[in-house]
């Protein structure tokens, strides 16, 4: 019996990456004293861009062994 990880949709991968990237950018911007609203909006836009990128371009064809 061969055990393998479950298949996860690209949308889930994109969402996880975008949330992580958003938090990293938002907290990083706050740490270097960027205004809270500006940091939030810029991080939100960047997170949405990462979501779209991973959703459309992420992953490849799985390799068969």
Structural class: mainly alpha
State the share of residues found in helices, binned by percent: 55-70%
- Largest beta-sheet details: none
Mean of pLDDT: 85
Number of helices: 2
N/C terminus separation: 15 Å
Radius of gyration: 16 Å
Features:
0% strand, 65 residues
How would you sum up this structure, described in words?
- The protein is an all-alpha fold and 65 residues long.
- It has one domain (10-57).
- The chain is built from two helices and no strands.
- Helix 1 (10-31) runs antiparallel to helix 2 (36-57).
- The longest helix is centred in the N-terminal third of the chain and has 22 residues, at 10-31.
- The protein is elongated and about 55 Å long.
- The mean pLDDT is 85.
Question: What layout of secondary structure does this protein have?
Answer:
Blueprint: H1 10-31, H2 36-57
Helix pairs in contact: 1-2
């Amino acid at each position: 019996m061969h055990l393998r990880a479950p298949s996860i949709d690209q949308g889930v991968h994109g969402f996880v990456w975008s949330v992580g990237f958003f938090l990293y950018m938002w907290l990083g911007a706050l740490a270097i004293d960027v205004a809270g609203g500006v940091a939030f909006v810029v991080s939100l836009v960047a997170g949405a861009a990462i979501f779209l990128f991973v959703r459309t371009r992420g992953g490849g064809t799985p390799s068969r062994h």
